[in-house]
Structure formats: structure tokens, C-alpha cells
């Protein structure tokens, strides 16, 4: 799958260089000058995240080391690319996902921070948490566990706490908080099961579980567990019925159940 997406990316990049000369050198540097998706992504992300403290060459070396040590990072990145392509109605190609969509880029930056955190480099992991927030407007604690096939749509203002766990195939829109309810210690953040969709502006707070394929309505404040395949809305959020959509994260259907 990674190789197929990489070849498609190269074809799309070649088309862009022919159609838009002003972008030719940029697209060449980001995609056509590389022999693999790993190489291209490390280049793109390093140039986004570097600053006066951490030069791009050092950031790129960290990404490449992480990809080599933990192949699942790239496997998950490929699933994230497909998630955006399949779920975002405004995206009709793979190339814009890796070049321009900060939700995708922020997730990949977090994957590096999480790798560093798990391997005893907490100070460096927190540096990249800070850069992720500064560059992409997405603040994820490095300890947070994130599955594959994740889409952050628009992404601005997403905040995710330390003990949050996000399973596979989840879609989260802008201004969402997965946080705590105070300054308590220990396991204090939400657990988001597979297939969940969390709409814009929702706040999910505390060590609660949002069940498989549940939907959280826009602007809702969720303080209690949400059953699987259930839609909740409101402040505080309350169930408004079960839905027949088995994959709300995929369909991105934000309508309320008929009942």
C-alpha cells in the first residue's frame, strides 16, 4: 500500500510541476527529489518543524531514525493519508494531504513526539509538542496514544491530554478538546474507540469512554461515557438516539438520528 501511494504521489507531483511552474521547484524538492515516502515526509515535516533551536537536518534525522526503528509509524501515516483522501470532500488527490493539510502533518509530528516519549527522550518529545502547537495549532501531549487512519479535519485548536487513547479510524474536527476535568493526577483523559467522529468545538472531558462508532455533536460538552453507535449532543451532552451509520468517522455524517 505504501508503495502504491508513493507512486501515485509522484504522478500527481509530476502533473503539478507541468501545470503550475511557480510550484515546480517546491514540489520537486518535497516529492520528486526523493526515492520513498519516508524520505519525502521526513523532508516536508523537518522543514515545517525546524526553528533556530533545532535545524531541519536534525529534525529530519530524528524522523528517519524513528521510521527505521518503528515501521508502524510509516504504516500508520499511510493509513492517515488514505483517511483524509477518502473522508475529506475537499480533497481529491494525495499530494495536497502531505504538502498542505496541517491536520495530517500535526498527526505525523505527534507520532515522532510519541516515539521519543516512549524511548526515554521526554524533554525532546515535549519540544516537538511545543513546535506542533506553534506551527500547526494542534496541542497533543507526547504520551497520548493515537491509532491509525486518523483525520484531523481543519485541525486548528485541537487539544489532547496526556492519558488520552485514540483507537483506529477516528475523525476529529477543529476546536475539539480531549481533556481532564481538573488538576487530578493519573489516568484522567478520554478513551476514544474506533470509528468515532467528534464534530467541531466538542469538549470530551475526564477518564470516560466514547464507544465504537459513536458521534459527538458540534459544540457538545461530554462528561460521561458514550455508548457505542450512539449520538450525543448538547451542554452537557445527552444521547439523542442510536444511528445506523456503522462508520461515522468515514462518512462524516453530522446529522442527528431521525428518532
Distance between the termini: 40 Å
The strand order across the widest sheet is 3-6-9-12-14-15
Characterize the overall form: globular
Mean pLDDT score, rounded? 96
pLDDT < 50 stretches: none
What is the succession of H and E elements? HHHHHHHHEEEEEEEEEEEEEEEH
Total DSSP E strands: 15
For the biggest sheet, the summary is: 6 strands, mixed
What percentage of amino acids are in beta strands?
15-25%
Helix content: 40-55%
Task: Tell me the radius of gyration.
Answer: 18 Å
How large is the count of helical segments? 9
Observed structural traits:
six-stranded mixed sheet; about 260 residues; single chain; five-stranded parallel sheet; alpha/beta
Amino acid at each position: 500500500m505504501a508503495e502504491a501511494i508513493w507512486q501515485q504521489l509522484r504522478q500527481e507531483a509530476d502533473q503539478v510541476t507541468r501545470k503550475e511552474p511557480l510550484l515546480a521547484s517546491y514540489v520537486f524538492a518535497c516529492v520528486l527529489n526523493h526515492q520513498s515516502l519516508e524520505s519525502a515526509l521526513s523532508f516536508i515535516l523537518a522543514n515545517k518543524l525546524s526553528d533556530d533551536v533545532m535545524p531541519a537536518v536534525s529534525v529530519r534525522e530524528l524522523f528517519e531514525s524513528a521510521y527505521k526503528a518503528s515501521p508502524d509509524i510509516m504504516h500508520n501515516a499511510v493509513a492517515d493519508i488514505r483517511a483524509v483522501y477518502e473522508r475529506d470532500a475537499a480533497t481529491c488527490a494525495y499530494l495536497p494531504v502531505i504538502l498542505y493539510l496541517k491536520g495530517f502533518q500535526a498527526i505525523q509530528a505527534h507520532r515522532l513526539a510519541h516515539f521519543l516519549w516512549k524511548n526515554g527522550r521526554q524533554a525532546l518529545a515535549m519540544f516537538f509538542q511545543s513546535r506542533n502547537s506553534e506551527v500547526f495549532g494542534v496541542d497533543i501531549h507526547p504520551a497520548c496514544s493515537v491509532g491509525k487512519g486518523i483525520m484531523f479535519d481543519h485541525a486548528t485548536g485541537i487539544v489532547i491530554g496526556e492519558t488520552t487513547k485514540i483507537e483506529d479510524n477516528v475523525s476529529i474536527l477543529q476546536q475539539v478538546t480531549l481533556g481532564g476535568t481538573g488538576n487530578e493526577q493519573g489516568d484522567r483523559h478520554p478513551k476514544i474507540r474506533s470509528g468515532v467522529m467528534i464534530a467541531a468545538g466538542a469538549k470530551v472531558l475526564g477518564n470516560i469512554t466514547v464507544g465504537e462508532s459513536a458521534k459527538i455533536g458540534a459544540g457538545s460538552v461530554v462528561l460521561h461515557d458514550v455508548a457505542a453507535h450512539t449520538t450525543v449532543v448538547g451542554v452537557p451532552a445527552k444521547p439523542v438516539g442510536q444511528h445506523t451509520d456503522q462508520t461515522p468517522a468515514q462518512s462524516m455524517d453530522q446529522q442527528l438520528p431521525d428518532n
